[in-house]
């Protein structure tokens, strides 16, 4: 989650207050900056707004930060979808890297979907399955970095390209609904296929009937 500060500041030797606002910053940085502003003794009022335009109190942000350390955060997910044309069977792979309790972790898992139309829909299914996995992990109210080699999914899901295909739009609606429910901001990055081998292998294994689900600490 990112925070923007908005405050009214009264300079020394004047009664006039000026409205100011900051760039987006982490919760920890926002609390440090607000503490510094308060120490000047010239801070008239201050508000903390997140990237969903929700207003927070300093007390709630401090509480959130303490909880945040024990919950999954700094999430980077690699996703891929594979599709078998003859059976309309899709395999999807997820490799999720994150931090929790001051340690680095990796989740690897795969899954299958039936009766899809094409490979791009398999990629959308992978994205939706990622959100389900993040919900199970307790990931919420933060930015999630999603790495995919699907130009269609990255550009349509990010809003860079319009989507005219009805079966893709159904997935986009479900993705938007679930990400909003979890308070997630999805940051998409298009990567080369050579950088997505882990998720690709998991998707292939799913199509072959090999179920993968693991959690390991990264040293």
Automatic annotation (TrEMBL):
List the PROSITE patterns hit by this protein, alphabetically: RNASE_H_1
What name does UniProt use for this protein? RNase H type-1 domain-containing protein
Single Gene Ontology MF annotation: RNA-DNA hybrid ribonuclease activity
Q: Which Gene3D superfamilies match?
A: Ribonuclease H-like superfamily/Ribonuclease H (3.30.420.10)
The residue ranges crossing the membrane are none
Query: What species is given as this protein's source?
Result: Halalkalibacter okhensis
User: What NCBIfam families does the record point to?
Assistant: PRK07708.1
Q: Which residues form the RNase H type-1 domain?
A: 71-208
Cross-referenced InterPro entries, in alphabetical order?
A: RNaseH-like_sf, RNaseH_domain, RNaseH_sf
Q: Pfam families from the xrefs?
A: RVT_3
């Amino acid at each position: 989650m990112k925070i923007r500060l908005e405050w009214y500041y009264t300079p020394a030797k004047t009664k006039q207050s000026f409205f100011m606002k900051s760039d987006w910053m982490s919760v920890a940085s926002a609390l440090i900056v607000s503490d510094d502003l308060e120490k000047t003794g010239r801070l008239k009022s201050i508000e903390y707004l997140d990237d969903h335009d929700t207003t927070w109190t300093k007390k709630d942000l401090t509480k959130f930060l303490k909880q945040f350390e024990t919950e999954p955060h700094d999430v980077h997910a690699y996703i891929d979808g594979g599709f078998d044309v003859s059976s309309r069977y899709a395999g999807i792979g997820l490799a999720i890297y994150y931090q929790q309790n001051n340690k680095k972790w990796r989740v690897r898992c795969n899954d299958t979907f039936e009766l899809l139309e094409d490979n791009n829909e398999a990629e959308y299914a992978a994205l939706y399955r990622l959100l389900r996995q993040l919900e199970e992990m307790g990931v919420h109210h933060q930015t999630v970095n999603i790495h995919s080699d699907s130009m269609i999914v990255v550009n349509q899901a990010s809003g860079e390209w319009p989507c005219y295909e009805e079966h893709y739009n159904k997935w986009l609606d479900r993705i938007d609904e679930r990400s909003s429910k979890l308070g997630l901001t999805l940051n998409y990055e298009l990567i080369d296929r050579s950088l997505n081998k882990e998720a690709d292998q998991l998707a292939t294994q799913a199509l072959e009937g090999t179920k993968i689900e693991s959690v390991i600490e990264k040293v």
